[in-house]
Structure formats: C-alpha cells, structure tokens
C-alpha cells in the first residue's frame, strides 16, 4: 500500500517541546513490541518533555516515559505542528 | 465456604490499590512474593456466603514477562488460576490499557473490566460506550471512580454473579 510521502526524523532529534506523531519503530522488533505495550504505537502522539543529549523524557497520553538514546534513534516520527 | 481467589491486574497507576483498599478495607496482609523484593498485598472480601482472597498484582503493561513485576503477575494468573481476574483500566488512557486486557482475554480467565477514573474522563469530555465495550469483549464492564467510591457496589455485585455462574471450576491449575 502506498502512503503519502511524509518527512520523518528520529525521535532523538526532534528536540525538547516537540509534538510528534509516531510513524515507525525501526530495528529491533523486540523493542518495538515493548514500546507498543507502553502505548507507543504508529499513529500515537508524543511530546518530548526533556532531552538530555538523546536520552529523552516523553509524554504519551498521561504517561511519562524515559527512553535511552539508542531506542530514541530507532523511533521515526513526523512533526505535528 | 470454599475460599475464592480474585486477582487485581492492570497497568501501573490505574488505581488498582485504591480498588484493592476499597474492597478489603482493613483486612489486609502485606508481604513479599517468595524470593522477590516485590510487595505482595492480600486482603479478604466477603461476597455473600463466600470469602474471597483479593490479591493486588504488581502493575504491568503486558504479560510478556520482561520485568520481575510482569513475571510475577503472569505466573500468578497462569499457575494459581484465580477464580476471577479484575482488570483495572484507566479510561483516560484506554487504548494502551486494552493491550493487557487482550492478553488476559487470550488466557481465558474469568475476567471483569473496571473502567476506573470515569470522573477524569468526564472532566475531559470523553464519552464511553460501556455496553458496546462489554459486548465486543464479552466480559462484564464496571464503570468506576475508585477515589470517590463510585462503582464499588456494582463491582461486588458483578463478582458475586461471576462466582455464582462458574462454581468450583477446575481449581489448582498447573502444578
């Protein structure tokens, strides 16, 4: 299925305060599954609360999650605003 | 009468312990899971002629057993086969919460859903179609605002019904 081209970037690079939509989790599908359990599924909206050089504090709904830089790089997102 | 076991399961921070406290009151016992530094809370609840032991399972996002908490929750449900599992959900984050629910449904344990924090959802203008959810999942659904005590009587009523309709099923589970 063809999808309209959308510009994606790694979540780790979106920057503090960014509101983004999760597009895809690349790489290890084990971690993709884990992220899905935590509510991070394609299409879900995320807000980056804090960025410590790639290590992120993000908000998914009411839940705050801390992501390591490695995982944050494997999550592809598109900007919402 | 025969002792029953009812487990409380759900994501972290959905109000499981509030529900637990409301159900058991002062009749609680706190210890650790054998060999684990994870708290195990049990309490007693009288349901008609039955006395039920309520077990407050650790908060978990799934039953895949990646963390100690998840392992404990899964092992308890699989090995000790509780007579009922009460799955507490935060309605304000329903989508994520239903992930665990789907896994519990697959395990075919007698399940009751508690949609907690309906007051929060109301305040946000979220509308819930409770009959539709109950029909789609095929399990009883109770609306609750545990912090205000709303829905507790309904939960007890549903639990009594569930236990009455499925008496003395193969208990003991997998040795």
From TrEMBL, chain A:
Pfam families according to UniProt? FeoA
Keyword annotations: Iron
Q: Which organism is it from?
A: Oscillochloris trichoides DG-6
Protein name per the record: FeoA family protein
Q: Known SMART domains for this protein?
A: FeoA
Q: Which residues cross the membrane?
A: none
Domain Ferrous iron transporter FeoA-like: start-end pairs = 9-79
Lineage of the organism: Bacteria, Bacillati, Chloroflexota, Chloroflexia, Chloroflexales
Q: Which GO terms describe its molecular function?
A: transition metal ion binding
Family matches, as InterPro entries: Fe-transptr_FeoA-like, FeoA-like, FeoA_core_dom, Transcriptional_repressor_C
TrEMBL record, chain B:
Task: Read off the CDD domains from this record.
Answer: FeoB
Keywords of the record:
Cell inner membrane, Cell membrane, GTP-binding, Ion transport, Iron, Iron transport, Membrane, Nucleotide-binding, Transmembrane, Transmembrane helix, Transport
Q: Which InterPro entries is this protein grouped with?
A: FeoB_GTPase, G_FEOB_dom, GTP-bd, P-loop_NTPase, Small_GTP-bd
Q: Where is the signal peptide?
A: none
Give its localization: Cell inner membrane
Output the PANTHER family linked to this UniProt entry.
FE(2+) TRANSPORTER FEOB, FERROUS IRON TRANSPORT PROTEIN B
Q: Which Gene3D superfamilies match?
A: P-loop containing nucleotide triphosphate hydrolases
Q: Which organism is it from?
A: Oscillochloris trichoides DG-6
> Which SUPFAM superfamilies has this protein been placed in?
P-loop containing nucleoside triphosphate hydrolases (SSF52540)
Coiled-coil positions are none
Q: Which PROSITE patterns match?
A: G_FEOB
| Source organism phylogeny | Bacteria, Bacillati, Chloroflexota, Chloroflexia, Chloroflexales
- The primary location reported for this protein is membrane
GO terms under cellular component: plasma membrane
Q: Which residues cross the membrane?
A: none
The record's GO molecular-function terms, alphabetically, read: ferrous iron transmembrane transporter activity; GTP binding
Topology in the lipid bilayer = Multi-pass membrane protein
Q: By what name is this protein known?
A: Fe(2+) transporter FeoB
Where does the FeoB-type G domain start and stop, copy by copy?
3-165
């Amino acid at each position: 299925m063809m999808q309209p081209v959308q510009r994606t970037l790694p979540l780790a690079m979106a920057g503090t305060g960014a509101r983004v939509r999760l597009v895809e989790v690349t790489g290890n599908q084990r971690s993709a599954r884990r992220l899905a359990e935590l509510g991070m599924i394609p299409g879900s909206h995320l807000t980056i609360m804090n960025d410590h050089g790639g290590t992120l504090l993000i908000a998914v709904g009411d839940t705050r999650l801390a992501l390591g830089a490695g995982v944050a790089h494997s999550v592809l997102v598109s900007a919402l605003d | 009468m025969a002792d029953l076991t009812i487990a409380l399961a759900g994501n972290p921070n959905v109000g499981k312990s509030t529900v637990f406290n409301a159900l058991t009151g002062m009749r609680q016992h706190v210890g650790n899971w054998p060999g684990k530094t994870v708290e195990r809370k049990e309490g007693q609840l009288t349901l008609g002629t039955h006395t039920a032991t309520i077990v407050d399972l650790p908060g978990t996002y799934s039953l895949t057993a990646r963390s100690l908490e998840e392992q404990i929750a899964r092992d308890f449900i699989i090995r000790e086969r509780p007579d009922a599992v009460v799955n507490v959900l935060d309605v304000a984050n329903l989508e994520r919460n239903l992930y665990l629910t789907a896994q519990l449904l697959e395990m075919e344990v007698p399940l009751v859903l508690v949609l907690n924090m309906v007051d929060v959802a109301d305040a946000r203008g979220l509308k819930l179609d409770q009959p539709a959810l109950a029909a789609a999942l095929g399990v009883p659904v109770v609306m609750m605002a545990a912090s205000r005590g709303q829905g507790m009587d309904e939960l007890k009523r549903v639990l009594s019904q569930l236990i009455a309709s499925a008496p003395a099923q193969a208990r003991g589970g997998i040795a």
